[in-house]
């Protein structure tokens, strides 16, 4: 009776008309130990299906949450840097060594001006040798005499 | 969506995607890569994931298409996928059933089937999907699925009967 039923189911199975439930019945029959000898050849098929059902995927999948870079933060950083720069940069610019007392300031200025003129004179003195050149050119004045003489000659 | 939420959605069917890929690509490594690819694609589109009606069916279709693409590009390169892993890792289970050799035979027989039939056998007899679901996944109509399924089953049975009768094991 059971065998008859199984044979019918097999026929239907081959036509692709069995329901999932009927197929389950077939599977459990062929995985049991009392399969009729003339249906032996189906055994490995159903065994194979069962074995394959249990294969699993073991590889890791690298799921990375992408860090979407937010450009807002750049402006935030820029603002922070600018405010810090203004805050800490100011006092440095303030102190240029201003002297409050006018007398002292005058003394300081005249001192520094004196220093400038001193240096300047020193510089000028080293250029004095240019006078020698002037002297040389003045002694070359006699060349004019020659020129005068030649002009007289060519006139005649 | 957080990682764990995503994993909760994906966990139930990631093995099915893997087995489907393996059925088509045969090599275990290739199948693992394909599965990874499918899952990463899902992860990238995780914002849209709620819009899909049936993520599982969608992923299976995706896996199928991905594998077909892969096979096509392999053919174009004139390369053959080398499959060196007929033996499954589940040998203990096979021994338990004491059908080692003949189970390998079934594997080889199924491997020789056309891709479409292999797919349908995988989806129906191993993953136990409804015919309508399979039709949707493969973008075929119900009758075509049934015809292919019937052909595949007949082919397997015939070859099994032959080997059984010849006593080649």
From TrEMBL, chain A:
Keywords: Membrane, Transmembrane, Transmembrane helix
Superkingdom of origin: Bacteria
Listed transmembrane segments: 69-89
Name this protein carries in UniProt: Uncharacterized protein
From TrEMBL, chain B:
Name of one Pfam family that matches: Sigma70_r4_2
Statement: the UniProt record of this protein carries the keyword Ligase: no
Protein name as it appears in the record: RNA polymerase subunit sigma-70
GO annotation terms (biological process): DNA-templated transcription initiation
Alphabetized SUPFAM superfamilies for the sequence: Sigma2 domain of RNA polymerase sigma factors, Sigma3 and sigma4 domains of RNA polymerase sigma factors
Origin organism lineage: Bacteria, Pseudomonadati, Bacteroidota, Flavobacteriia, Flavobacteriales
Stretches assigned to the RNA polymerase sigma-70 region domain: 11-75
Domain RNA polymerase sigma factor 70 region 4 type: 106-156
PANTHER family recorded: RNA POLYMERASE ECF-TYPE SIGMA FACTO, RNA POLYMERASE SIGMA FACTOR HI_1459-RELATED
Membrane-spanning ranges: none
Entry-linked InterPro entries: RNA_pol_sigma-70-like, RNA_pol_sigma-70_dom, RNA_pol_sigma70_r2, RNA_pol_sigma70_r4_t2, RNA_pol_sigma_r2, RNA_pol_sigma_r3/r4-like, WH-like_DNA-bd_sf
GO molecular-function term, one example from the UniProt record: DNA binding
Protein family per UniProt: Belongs to the sigma-70 factor family. ECF subfamily.
Keywords: DNA-binding, Sigma factor, Transcription, Transcription regulation
Organism: Flavivirga aquatica
């Amino acid at each position: 009776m059971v065998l008859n039923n199984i044979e019918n189911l097999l026929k239907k199975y081959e036509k692709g008309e069995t329901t999932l439930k009927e197929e389950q019945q077939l599977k459990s029959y062929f995985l049991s130990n009392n399969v009729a000898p003339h249906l032996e050849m189906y055994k490995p098929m159903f065994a194979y299906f069962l074995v394959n059902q249990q294969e699993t995927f073991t590889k890791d999948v690298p799921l990375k949450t992408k860090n979407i870079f937010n450009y807002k933060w750049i402006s935030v950083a820029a603002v922070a840097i600018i405010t810090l720069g203004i805050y800490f940069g100011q006092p440095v610019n303030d102190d240029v060594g201003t002297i409050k007392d006018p007398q002292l300031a005058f003394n300081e200025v005249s001192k520094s001006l004196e220093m400038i003129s001193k240096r300047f004179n020193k510089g000028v003195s080293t250029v004095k040798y240019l006078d020698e050149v002037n002297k040389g050119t003045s002694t070359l004045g006699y060349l004019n005499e020659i020129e005068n003489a030649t002009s007289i000659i060519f006139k005649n | 969506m957080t990682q764990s939420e995503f994993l909760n959605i994906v966990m139930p069917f990631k093995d099915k995607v893997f087995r489907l890929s393996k059925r088509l690509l045969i090599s275990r490594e290739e199948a693992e890569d394909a599965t990874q690819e499918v899952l990463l694609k899902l992860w990238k589109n995780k914002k849209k994931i709620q819009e899909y009606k049936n993520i599982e069916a969608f992923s299976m279709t995706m896996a199928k298409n991905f594998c077909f693409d892969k096979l096509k590009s392999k053919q174009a390169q004139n390369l053959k996928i080398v499959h060196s892993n007929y033996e499954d890792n589940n040998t203990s289970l096979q021994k338990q059933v004491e059908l080692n050799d003949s189970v390998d035979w079934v594997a080889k027989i199924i491997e020789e089937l056309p891709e479409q039939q292999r797919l349908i056998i995988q989806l129906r007899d191993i993953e136990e999907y409804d015919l309508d679901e399979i039709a949707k996944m493969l973008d075929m109509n119900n009758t075509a699925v049934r015809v292919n399924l019937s052909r595949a089953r007949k082919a397997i049975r015939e070859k099994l009967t032959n080997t059984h009768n010849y006593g080649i094991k």
